[in-house]
Specification:
Blueprint (H helix, E strand, L loop, with lengths): L5 E5 L2 E5 L3 H10 L4 E6 L1 H9 L1 H9 L2 E4 L2 H9 L10 H15 L4 E6 L4 H12 L4 E6 L5 H14 L3 E5 L4 H9 L7 E4 L3 H6 L7 H5 L3 H8 L4 H4 L1 H21 L1
Parallel strand pairs: 3-4, 3-8, 5-6, 5-7, 7-8
Antiparallel strand pairs: 1-2
Helix pairs in contact: 1-5, 2-3, 2-13
Length: 252
């Protein structure tokens, strides 16, 4: 039986907790139920406070996973949940492997990144999983006319899994605006995953990710991110205030 995931609030935004996200998505795919997957982290949470459209998209998404360390620690310490961090790139990779192993014939589409990056990412996965049905790719940099052609392609091809790597919040808003083109598809915002799969960039060492320090590696590789990283202490402060407020309310 198809069960909805448990939902918990992180500073007013939903996070869905379950033990097996890929299986839930595969079941959703099997039953023809479309899904928008959000990979929530502290930075996106803070952006949503200023961007009401982004907040609404997150609140209405079928699946919001705990991608960032801040979100995971919030759920562990303040919501008392036994939850593991699920990086969006790892969820996407597991889903791709599951699609190949189960030979579902589900068509996959890659959209986003600089010119040629999505195509290289698709080529990488085609080599990894020859049975994977890749329906097409499209760069994230294009003219309005080319974007309209992309929409027509999606509507005609009807891929079942669509990875969108446009960065936050552009990818989330774009998915929400275009989901009607493929109503039964799984749409996942994958950020810079195409850069990793194409070999354009490298991911942080596992030990940094395991210790919730992947953000530090990103800052080292891309110093221009420092302004965006200011969201992390803001998230921590708001979480602290939330925790103190809840503790005070319980004690009264």
């Amino acid at each position: 039986m198809f069960k909805p995931p448990k939902v918990f609030s992180v500073l007013g935004l939903p996070v869905h907790i379950m033990t097996d996200y890929p299986s839930w998505l595969l079941e959703s795919l099997k039953q023809g139920m479309g899904a928008h997957v959000i990979t929530l982290n502290a930075e996106m949470t803070m952006q949503a406070e200023q961007n009401k459209s982004l907040a609404e998209v997150i609140k209405t998404a079928e699946l919001v996973i705990p991608d960032g360390a801040g979100v995971v620690l919030f759920l562990r310490w303040l919501r008392r949940q036994k939850v593991q961090r699920i990086p969006g790139i790892e969820l996407a990779e597991t889903l791709l492997r599951e699609l190949g192993e189960k030979q579902t014939d589900a068509k996959v589409f890659f959209y986003g990144g600089a010119t040629g990056v999505a195509a290289k990412a698709a080529d990488y996965w085609q080599r990894q999983i020859p049975s994977l049905a890749i329906a097409g790719t499209h760069s994230g940099f294009h003219s309005p006319a080319e974007e309209e052609q992309l929409r027509q392609t999606l509507a005609q091809v009807q891929p079942q899994v669509i990875f969108v790597g446009l960065g936050v919040p552009r990818q989330e808003l774009w998915i929400a605006q275009n989901r009607h083109l493929c109503r039964q598809a799984i749409w996942i915002g994958v950020g810079g995953s195409f850069d990793i799969w194409s070999g354009t960039k490298t991911r942080a060492p596992a030990w940094l990710g395991n210790n919730h320090l992947e953000w530090l590696y990103r800052l080292y590789k891309e110093p221009w991110r420092w302004r965006r990283m200011l969201a992390l202490p803001k998230f921590a402060l708001k979480s602290l205030i939330y925790g103190l407020t809840v503790k005070e309310a319980i004690s009264q």
